[in-house]
Design brief:
about 300 residues, alpha+beta, seven-stranded mixed β-sheet, three-stranded antiparallel β-sheet
Length: about 300
């Protein structure tokens, strides 16, 4: 790996990593020894999720898609789409590589979770990189920073990407930066990390651009009932949950098997340089099938 800091196994102590994640709804902490209990790192699940994924979404190059066409074909129709080519002027190789981000921000703390009281838990990026390389967790930590404007060092990240021309309308600007809800994210996820099934806040539409790595998505039409997409009735064994790796490898296949053709889903792989548009109200889940860097807004 490219960095030279002597990060020790101390970063794996419960004080820095183990206490970050309280995955049980009961509030009990997952013990450090249980993080790799199912040994997903020894399986080929991510490889299979990447190679066996159907491609059920429109893919359009930004050079062939006007703002007017986007509004008529996708925004008004509540239809997801992947737009390619939007990162051509973002200096991805010079700025958005793992190495460049490490060199620029290794001593800056980024959010990797929340405690039981809802307070943000942060670690320095150099420690997260060590974790990203070394971890064998079934469901790894996901760097998910939503407060880039709060620190001077982080604000540079905002200036390194351009909001795509299709998404420049922003009614929340009326509220001002201090009062508006979180809307901007910088993400870095190890293989197997991801999100649970969710709808973006306040029924907002969202865009997400992958800068490094690949993500597998599943979107459920907004009419799909919450009880179905959450899949709790499809949990069959003690220890199964809705974390991304278990959802995509176990829960989602069971939902699809039961619902068959009645289930309205869109599944696809998002690769580097591709921007996903998710209309408001669509349930969706994402898993990183390799190490990823992304940004996005709602």
């Amino acid at each position: 790996f490219f960095f030279n800091d002597t990060a020790t196994t101390e970063i794996y102590t419960e004080q820095i990593v183990g206490s970050v994640r309280c995955v049980q709804e009961t509030g009990s902490e997952l013990k450090l020894k249980d993080w790799d209990k199912y040994e997903y790192h020894r399986t080929d699940w991510c490889k299979r999720l990447l190679e066996e994924c159907p491609d059920q979404i429109d893919r359009v190059d930004c050079e062939d898609l006007t703002i007017e066409d986007f509004i008529e074909k996708y925004e008004k129709q509540d239809k997801p789409v992947i737009i390619k080519g939007l990162t051509k002027k973002w200096s991805v190789d010079k700025y958005w590589s793992f190495e460049q981000l490490y060199q620029r921000y290794k001593d800056i703390e980024f959010k990797v979770g929340e405690d039981d009281e809802g307070y943000k838990l942060r670690i320095k990026l150099k420690y997260f990189f060590e974790y990203l390389v070394q971890q064998k967790d079934d469901s790894p930590l996901y760097l998910f920073e939503s407060s880039l404007e709060d620190k001077k060092e982080m604000r540079e990240i905002i200036r390194k990407y351009d909001v795509p021309k299709y998404f420049t309308d922003d009614l929340f600007k009326i509220m001002g930066e201090k009062k508006r809800p979180p809307y901007r994210w910088f993400l870095m996820g190890p293989e197997r990390s991801g999100t649970t099934v969710h709808i973006d806040p306040l029924m907002t539409s969202a865009w997400n651009t992958s800068l490094q790595g690949h993500k597998r998505w599943v979107l459920f039409h907004k009419d799909a009932p919450k009880s179905l997409v959450k899949g709790k009735e499809f949990v069959r064994e003690v220890g199964e949950d809705d974390e991304a790796i278990m959802y995509f490898s176990k829960i989602l296949p069971r939902i699809k098997e039961k619902e068959g053709k009645h289930l309205q889903t869109i599944e696809f792989i998002q690769g580097p340089g591709e921007t996903v548009f998710v209309p408001g109200g669509w349930w969706h889940a994402v898993i990183n099938v390799d190490n990823t860097i992304a940004c996005g807004e709602v």
